[in-house]
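Deliverable D5.2: sample structural annotation.
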Amino acid sequence: MVKTTGWGLREDLQLKVAWLKRLVDECPPVPASVSGEIQHILKTAPQLLDDMDKTIQSGDAAALAQVAALIEHAEAMLRWALDSVKGTATVEAIEAGREADPALPAEQRLMNRLTRFMASQVDRAHFATLAQAFAGADAVQGDRIYMDPTHEAEAFSHWLMHDITLPGTSRRLIECFAEEHGEDLLEDERPLLTAHLHDRPSVYQVVTLSHDRKTRRPKDTYRVRDLLTPAEELRITDRASARQLHTGSIFMGRAIPIDRPSAHYQLLGTLTVLPAAVWADLSHIIEEWNAQYREHYPQATVVAFYRAHYARLVRTLEKLADKGPALH
């Protein structure tokens, strides 16, 4: 999503176009099975982004305004196409029993391995039941599962891997994966798996968001308060969100440690910014859920509470959306 940061429209647009170009460059080979619309979007994307880049470099105020008006739609279409391609490629690799491509970035290789492991542990019927628990009854229609591939499907995958326990075990999927396959990972994948094992999903509020004195650009590192554990603050390093958020912003996100032991984290996946009106209602609901949860699990951690209620939280957000759109 495009949101100007206050340090210059031209610089904001240049940053956005450069980021979109990198996403396109990192796109895996496009499977022939994806729709013609997706193939067309990805085929024409390089030229579209080059044209935008040239327009931005011209510095013409009217032209910059035109790019600013178009780039949000272009980003949404590109991310939809790219996520669809990645999802299709992963599914086909799983069905064919192929290992993750060593040329892919370490994070993507690890996610592919986790997805393959998930497919071996969760049968189709149980998968459909979980999809309904996460996204609602209408997410499953016949033998098809309908989710937004850009945000909802990603959040669902992270929920499956990090939050829920598998039938017949008290361990999370990612913990089972680590025990069975941790030693088989490539060297650059192992620290990533360790970080995933210590993820911290919660609702956060930006405490300090500083800017570089010379360029006035937002710094990549900022501090947040965990609103479910208000006495605790974390340091987040994440370039994209640093340019989207502002001091006081409240968002749902999954943080994973950059190094341990410390309070230095990065964000995993897409975050969801909560308008103040939505959080005002949601915080009261969370308090009620937490009180009920503590009656049954008095020794449970805050993270355990959040994992147990995350799917319910996502569904509740949909009902509160009319208070103000949640920004992804």
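Annotation notes: The longest strand covers residues 264-273. The domain at 200-323 is CATH 2.40.50 (OB fold (Dihydrolipoamide Acetyltransferase, E2P)).
The annotation will be released with the project's public dataset once the embargo ends.
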